[in-house]
Write a structure and sequence with these properties.
Order of helices and strands: HHHHHHH
Strand content: under 5%
Radius of gyration: 26 Å
Distance between the termini: 54 Å
Number of strands: 0
Helix content: 55-70%
Number of helices: 7
Shape: elongated
Length: about 210
């Protein structure tokens, strides 16, 4: 007999399998091959991810990051183009729009008493180079989201946590008022605690009307 469901597996057994690759802790009696033990663990792990809502949480995190980076890249790129056009047509930048760059952490200014077009264009070029790095980061996040979706469809494990991250989650749950006992709490119970915890946090972070 082997444990292959989240309702039968304890948090301790999950950690032994997940982080130490000691799959034999799932065996109650009898003999099982490495592949059979691996399949049992993957079944438990997949159930844990689904019940805890970790896939949706990771998906939301990536979508939020992509939206933030994409908005920044598009707005800053348009602003750079605007300033270059103003310089070309009027010999001065669009003064009112210069402060926009500071919103995204870019320092650029125009000295009207000692105007220097070349210095201003050089500053725009530096910002543009930094935006190129943001574009690379944007591509990485989009690729990560695509792989997450692909693995979900193919029913591969889609959420990766380190041992330290997992322990931090357990500690956070206990501080929040949940009672997680590694040798007693089942993976099913843990997953539902995480799901409730995330919903509570999400609800509390909603802006009040």
């Amino acid at each position: 007999m082997i444990i292959d469901t989240a309702s039968e597996c304890t948090v301790y057994q999950l950690m032994k399998c997940w982080f130490e690759n000691k799959l034999s802790v799932l065996v109650i009696d009898g003999e099982f091959t490495d592949d059979e033990m691996r399949q049992a663990f993957e079944s438990i792990h997949t159930e844990y991810i689904d019940l805890a809502g970790l896939y949706k949480s990771k998906q939301f995190e990536l979508l939020t990051q992509i939206n933030h980076i994409e908005t920044k890249v598009n707005r800053v790129t348009l602003s750079i183009d605007l300033q270059r056009r103003f310089l070309e047509v009027f010999d001065v930048p669009c003064i009112a729009a210069i402060t926009f760059f500071k919103e995204y952490g870019y320092n650029i200014y125009w000295d009207s008493t000692h105007p220097d077009k070349l210095a201003f264009l050089s500053a725009l070029n530096k910002i543009e180079q930094r935006i190129k790095l943001q574009k690379l980061q944007l591509k990485e996040k989009k690729d990560e989201l695509i792989n997450l979706e692909k693995n979900k469809i193919e029913k591969n494990n889609t959420v990766i946590q380190s041992r330290q991250e997992f322990i931090k989650t357990l500690n956070a749950l206990n501080k929040y008022g949940f009672d997680v006992k590694k040798n007693e709490t089942t993976v099913e119970e843990l997953a539902l605690m995480i799901n409730d915890w995330q919903k509570d946090i999400s609800q509390n972070n909603k802006p009040k009307k």
